[in-house]
TrEMBL record:
InterPro entries named in the record: DHBP_synth_RibB-like_a/b_dom, Sua5-like_dom, TC-AMP_synthase_SUA5
Lineage: Bacteria, Bacillati, Actinomycetota, Actinomycetes, Frankiales
Molecular-function GO terms, alphabetical: ATP binding; double-stranded RNA binding; L-threonylcarbamoyladenylate synthase; tRNA binding
Name this protein carries in UniProt: L-threonylcarbamoyladenylate synthase
CC annotations in GO: cytoplasm
Domain YrdC-like residue range list: 13-198
Location in or out of the cell: Cytoplasm
Organism: Frankia alni (strain DSM 45986 / CECT 9034 / ACN14a)
Catalytic activity: L-threonine + hydrogencarbonate + ATP = L-threonylcarbamoyladenylate + diphosphate + H2O
Amino acid sequence: MQRFDCSDEAERARGLDAAVAAVGRGGLVVLPTDTLYGLGADAFDRDAVAALLAAKGRGRNMPVPVLVGSWRTLDGLIDRKTPQVKDLISAFWPGGLTLVVRHAASLRWDLGEGRGTVAVRMPLHPVAIELLGRTGPMAVSSANISGQPPATTADEAVDQLGGAAEVYLDGGPCPAAVPSTIVDCTGEVPVVVRSGAVGLDALREVLPLVREPAGR
């Protein structure tokens, strides 16, 4: 296990090199984001994604989200970028909003039982963006054991995951320290399926018809 203090420029560069190498050989890395620390792997490496789920003690019934480093990357991943998706991306990316969309049928990945959908986000964190720019899309879930509190610092991630991750990129405490908001955009009307960093009022300023799940 290697840990790098990303507040030091030279150590950050070494850490990013180590993380890119680890992802390239199918390893797991812990990275900071604007919301929580994430445990990441190459999104197109089935064995690496399976290792990620195993490290968290998480089943395939909870597919792993994908982080991207640019708006353009999304074009190659999803079936169709609807006007609603475009508006939400324009307003909240990079940032704390995850969008559930239908992924392109041609993609050869296995993130769990997503039934043709993927949850995708572009984080607002310089270390995460630089890493994603070098690795391409990564499967990233919160850096914690399933059912335990999510990690908001590298120390918390190390305490829970230990040697399961090859590289830890320490970017200091997460600015938001709350999960991203998840909006399902696969239907005609976008639905909030998890409240988080982006509030419902802010979402409705962009798309007034965004609704919460039935029963809320």
